[in-house]
User: Fold this.
Amino acid sequence: MSDRVVNSLKSWKQYSEKEWRNVKPSDYVIRYGKIGAPLTEIKRSWLSVLRRAQITDFRWHDLRHDFASQLVMNGVPLEQVQKLMTHETISMTLRYAHFAQNILQDAANKLNAL
Assistant:
């Protein structure tokens, strides 16, 4: 996990311990509501977030594609992306990592310097 994610989770833990101090401790990371119930209705929550953000045609699994694509487009080597995605092969990672057109154009333009 990135430092940012770790820090966010630590902040959430502090918040939830304060907010739900009278609630029985839990192994759940994400809790909500006044009683600190575990978040179990992921699909319904996901669809609600998409609706509020006015995002259409985006599945939960698309986050994996976006994750891989963002890493590759920001210069993370494919081998590292493969490990983060827990793929057994680079070819699977390539199926997930989609390149933005400007990235491909920049790569083609590097040929001019040769």
User: Anything to note?
Assistant: Helices lie at 3-19, 42-52, 62-73, 78-85, 90-96, 101-109.
